[in-house]
Description:
The complex is a heterotrimer of chains A (308), B (290) and C (449).
Chain A: H1 29-32, H2 36-54, H3 66-73, H4 77-108, H5 112-122, H6 130-139, H7 148-155, H8 160-163, H9 169-194, H10 198-206, H11 211-222, H12 224-238, H13 243-251, H14 262-271, H15 276-300
Chain B: H1 2-29, H2 35-40, H3 49-61, H4 66-98, H5 104-116, H6 123-132, H7 140-146, H8 150-163, H9 166-174, H10 179-187, H11 192-208, H12 211-216, H13 225-233, H14 254-274, H15 276-284
Helix pairs in contact in B: 3-14, 4-7, 4-8, 4-11, 4-13, 5-8, 8-11, 13-14
Chain C: H1 2-6, H2 10-44, E1 48-53, H3 58-67, E2 72-77, H4 87-98, E3 105-107, H5 113-117, H6 134-137, H7 142-147, E4 149-150, E5 153-154, E6 157-158, E7 160-161, E8 164-169, H8 170-176, H9 184-197, H10 211-217, E9 225-227, E10 230-232, H11 238-253, H12 264-270, E11 279-283, H13 286-294, E12 302-305, E13 325-328, H14 335-348, E14 360-361, H15 364-375, H16 385-391, H17 407-419, H18 424-441, E15 445-447
Helix pairs in contact in C: 9-11, 17-18
Amino acid sequence: MTVTIKATGQKPVRAQVTRKRGLGTMRGLPFVLPYLPFLVAFGILPVAYAFYLAVTTDTGGWAGFDNFTRTVRDYRFLPALEHILLYTGMWLGSLIVIVVGLALLLHGRANRVTSTFRFLFYIPGALAGASSVLVWLFMLDPSVSPGSFLLRNVLGSHLFVESIAPGKLPFVFAMIAFWTGAGGWIVVMYGALNTIPHDLEEAARVDGAGPITIALRLKLPLIRKWIAYMAILAFATGTQLFVEPQLVNQASLGQVPDTWSSNQLAYQLAFRYGDFNGAAAVSVDLIAVALIAAVVVVKRTGLFRIED
Amino acid sequence: MVLVSRGFRLLILTAFAAFFIVPIVWLVLAPTKSDEALVTNGPFAFGSLGNVALAWDHLDAFSNHIYRAWIGNSLLYALGATAIVLVTGVPAGYGLALSTFPGRRLVLTLTLIVMIMPAATLVLPIFLELDALHLIGSVLSVILPFSFFPFGVYLAYIYYSTAIPRDLLDAARIDGCGEWSTFRYVALPLAKPVVALVFFFSFVADWNNFFLPYAVLADSEQYPIQVGLSNLLSSTPSFNPATGGGGQQVGIFRPELALATLLAVIPVAIVFLLSQRALVRGLVAGAVKN
Amino acid sequence: MRLLGRFASPRSKLHWLRRSLLLSLAMAVVLPAGACGDDSDKGKDSSKLTIWVDAVRLPVAEAYKKEHPDLNLDIVTYDGDGNGATTMQTKIQLWNRTGKGWPDVVFSQQVNDPVWMAQKPFEFAAPLNDLIPADLISKWPAPSTAQCTVNGKLYCVQDNLAQVVLWYNKKLMDQFGYTVPKTWQEWAALGSKVATEHPGYIVGNIGDSYGHWIYLWGNQCPLEQLNGGKLLINSADSHCTRVASMLDPLVKNGTLPPLSVFTPDFAGKYGGAADKVLMMPGPAWYAQAVFNDTLHIPAGEITAAPPLQWESETPVTTGQVGGGPWIIAKRSKNLKGAADFVIWATTVFNPSGKDARPGYPAYGPAADVWLKDMATNKYFAADPTPALKGAADKIWTGWHLVTYPDQPVWSNTVVTQLVAGKSLSSLMQPFGDALAQAAQASGYTVIRQ
């Protein structure tokens, strides 16, 4: 049984008001009840608690915007913001161009070879988290890396310390994120391409369109919404960066600071200085980004329809 | 002309495939070499299986076999949380898909919104929440947050919206089935593909999660493997030299680190292979990614 | 029933699903309970000792365990808070919040760790005046105990003295016909000479996270000087700028590379078979740990000379790289056991030869034994002990320990830019600024001149 998303533009068929849909009112509630505590406890309450902490002081009094202004003025806040914006920009760019490009290339001729490639692209996804950073610590060291030629000649680094020079970091982290995440997104884009009716493609081919024209003029516009969804999600995820700079901070003997990303700054504020209100303020900044992105995706892309 | 464009296409695809796969090939071959051989021999040279055994001995000896504890913890957290996700999430998806009740839209919208928010967003607030409940330090501080997996609920919701034809439900009701029986005899038997899908995504997400366990676990014996790997990294002399000596006694060098990373990936790889069929069918046909 | 007939075979699937779900659920419920049980037991056992050490101190802890087999010892290896990490701070925060989990003894590579451990909000360290007999404490050198004293109480004892001396390769120096420099100026001149006469050889390095402790501390650069209630961070002081000017040409001509001595790259380029380390200002513990264990420089080549003097200024002062404080946790349930271990590790443990303690023991009597053993150690070309002993009391006292780590600031602001090719002189101002920011974030009132 295949799982499909309702393509946009299709109006969901509404059941008649008089006819009870499915199990009817209230009958489904018991099935949902066990899930609700988790939704509240780990979805809603943390957001609320973060907002609460961000506007109060450590003794519980009202702080208004104080925590926000204080953390913004912290000397590490702006550099961290700059870092994650640079990183997110590079990662987004790579996703939109390379992932969509690869998906189109794959979809152009769907066969056994194609599915093998897709599988190969997906494999690094199994190494998300700390594992992928560790692999890349080795890949970035010209003395052991299989890509040492590229490191020396393209990246210009002959030593590991040069690979993680401050200017190169956003690119390096974007590359790691791309390596682990691209495969999954390629599969999704491929799936999105599959929702394009075959007759459209056939008609275009009959009209004499070559594969490139079909890809760029026909398929690409039809998966616009999916690309937007991917971009928005990637933006939200990118700003939350934590694992990669944290591990590289350890591996670089402190040359990469432990407050390189905003989430790291929040972590240090909380766990090193015990300033949970400040940490909450920074968290709320990041949560706001994620929330806005989520709401935009849900309400505006129309990819997620909630049927009544 | 067609051949040129096909060849070009193949070239690009192969180049990217190399980018994705070569580091993994390196990782598989690295534990077979000694630390010097990693530098002097080629990156694809095969050393010996003896070196792998040696590397494992060092790795296992680190901090009293703590590596095994880390793997065990990851299994506990991932399987425990995924079990809870399946038990709470699949029925929830079913209920959301096939009934109406006050607040249904709200629950769905909230689920969607939180699902799209990245995992790292709520770690610090969740830490403080768990602290207020005095759960910090217990394994529940990891398992309970992991058990909240809105993407699983959403997958189940999508699945049941499309998988159960109206007549089947009507037939069940005509036959006199109550709600629970309908679920048992209609929904559950059809659940296998969605259970496989949710199991896969939940397990992999839990196995790879770093930030939450890093923040809430103080005792390194409780670390899951991802956080354990960072602990290992900070004990590897070439990556974290000790002020006051070389730290060679610990015996963790680059082959051991590579082996540790490789072994940490194997359970996910197994789950991945097992879920392949459900995944391909589910995803390729156009499901949504979390 | 029509329905049942249709689902006769899926019924077994259903049972399988139900059973496995129940099993996983059961496991999820049962196992955590077991794990929690262990936690609560830890606290009650007062003969248990949890010791946190770094990789280098692991042999000490294991030797103690061997000598006391009936003791319940839990040895945990961690990163030692090295290179300015904040591991201990985050851990202590967590333990304080949960109200449990504190180890009994902690070894730290950061000599300033006890300073914040003794104060709010951490309040982790136990005062040692009651735990360690006064007559033992008196045998630690006064500067060493001074560094462990916060608000009048003693909160740690140091494992070793880490005074900076001038390590040099006697064999190479004789071979090239150079004399061992006595002043920084002679050393710098030699560096320029080496760059032309023997390119590829180095007279030091500046890529470690503690480069400022080697070159700036000893030359009296006021970057961490507590005056009254304020912290003086003046990187524009002549004591700082003149050192930077002296070092700039050496970094440029390659005799003072901005590379960490612990990286495999360094070992490959200058150690082992390459054997290109001509001289190296460095702390006492470089002795075997760096030259032999890390760089694999052949035996019979390395020895130590007294720390360098600036022109003809007296007294000669030198820097300090480490010290290795041992800290006992205030909330330890086994204070006596913890104290026994710390005393044993600092005053008794003193093997000879290759397994010798890497650092110059801070405890006086242990130092004498260590020096005697070092003097006859076949690894060195000549007896390094006169230089080591002579430098022990020359550490400049104008550099005070603060609550924030300054190593990451050096690494992040200076080393990365040196690697990129900038001059040290141009980095002194940003370095001072960054130090001031770190100090202010930690609550200090900073004055810049």
